[in-house]
Amino acid sequence: MGRESPDEEQTHEEVRERDLVEAYLGEHALEQSLNDVINQVVADRPEDPFLVLSRLLYAKATSQKGIFYVQVQEILDARGQPTVLVQLHTGKGVFDATVSGCTGGLPDKLPVIEDQPMLPLTKQRHGGKGYRKRADKAQNALNDKLAGMEPTEQSVIDSILLALEPEVGRNICVATSVAVCKAGAKYAELPLHEYIAKLLEMPTENMCIPMPMFSIINGGKLASNKMFIQEVTIAPSSALTFADALQIGAEFTNLVKEQLDTRGLGFSNSGAFGGFTPQVQVLSEVFLFLRGAYDEIRSRYDGAAHGMTKGSVSPLRIEFGLDVSADEFLAPVVAAAPTPEGGDEADTRTTFSYNTDKWVQGSSGVAKSSEEMLDMIRGNVRELEITSVVDPFARGDVKTHTALYIAEHDQDTLGTVDTDGSEGGGRKVVGGDPNCKLQIVSRKLHELHGLENVLQERACNTIALQLEQHPSLTRALEAVLDARRLGVAIILSAQSGGITDGNFLASFAVGAGIGQVKFGGLASAECVERYNQLLLIADDELAPGFVNASYRR
């Protein structure tokens, strides 16, 4: 066969090119897709057809993709401190999340800050707490690892984030994990709380609407008063619906404000977690206001349900709790040596001293031993009828936690247990659990010693779960499963400036079947949003049931 002429070669090249073009058009269905969007534009006849055409093409381009871009940028949290916002761009929309910069963040500080490593902190952006450089680095790392992945691969993505934590910081990892979960729910076409139940492999009938624990009084580091107790909370345990519990909480909060306003300027100022900050130091004085509000609200509800289910207020029961956060006023170790990383030496003390006058201006400090703290906590529990205490002693003080547990559960001298909450000679059962007479809540104890070890020591019977203290959502879900396996009740606890998405926190509580939430007080818009999101979930006709008095789960 002779050599092809130039014209024949050109013809064959044109045929090959045409075949390639047709194959490409067929592979991506370009002709059909273009016809579809053009026909839609023609049918709608918009004023700006090119703008609509570009939007339709973008939607078409991203409709089949998973994660195709991760954006990380510096913003301010609810306390006005720098943190990061993670935005997950997917084929079904953009999903974002943010977590406080105090949660294991890696801010831009010396020696990496604005290319001037020797600048003092006072000369740096946000005092060295900014995230502009860190956000850029994290964005590159996240896009490199997550682009092309499906949001429904929560555990796989969380494993990647766990490996990235030393490089990008816990707050960015947690925010990314939360954003992935939101996107996963969209892809699974499930409400967020049902999707979280699915991640837990938990039957939907185990979901519940939790009992709220409202922060009424703030002290300690949350306030500008003299109280060493960080929070006084209430739980409207007689409420039969979440809506009733929220109404009782709101009306009680307003009555407390009225009580405090009578004392003068500054008494009804609000603290960092949505409670009031009365200028008092003694807890018993605080309870004069709270008991006054309790008596008033019972009087108002007497014979009238105020639009609530009658059983929610007849009789009305409100349970009081204390968040002591004893680590905040633990007397420091004398002459602690710095570590090579610049932190303090691990606290290995075996005896503990508590400075309950830490927030009293001009005080030289009043040191209390563990035994004195135990006596004081027990006295408050009995005299003020407290049903819940959070971190009553330092995280290292396991022995005193155990002493409190034994004193309240094994050496009860008040007679038989009163299971129905009526007046009588016995100790009331807490949260519908016949084995619980006082919720001893660990927020930090089990993080240091491990939950199984803490339970073997009988140092607590409840844990406060903060999502941002876990490097990923998967780890937080594992903590829920561990607590369930060990028979420990869970309180989902928020913190000021933590995960700011009220809908996610509410959905997590419902989807994980958690019986109690501690979302702050109603004098804070951030905290109110969390309770409102729970209300919206509870009002849905397909919503799970409210836990009411049986909230320990």
Automatic annotation (TrEMBL):
Its EC number is 4.2.1.11. Residues 206-548 form the Enolase C-terminal TIM barrel domain. One of its GO terms (molecular function) is phosphopyruvate hydratase activity. InterPro entries: Enolase, Enolase-like_C_sf, Enolase-like_N, Enolase_C, Enolase_N. Residues 67-196 form the Enolase N-terminal domain. Keywords: Glycolysis, Lyase, Magnesium. Pathway: Carbohydrate degradation; glycolysis; pyruvate from D-glyceraldehyde 3-phosphate: step 4/5. The keyword Magnesium applies. SUPFAM superfamilies: Dimerization-anchoring domain of cAMP-dependent PK regulatory subunit, Enolase C-terminal domain-like, Enolase N-terminal domain-like. GO terms for cellular component: phosphopyruvate hydratase complex. The keyword Lyase applies. One of its GO terms (biological process) is glycolytic process. Belongs to the enolase family. This is phosphopyruvate hydratase. It comes from Lagenidium giganteum.
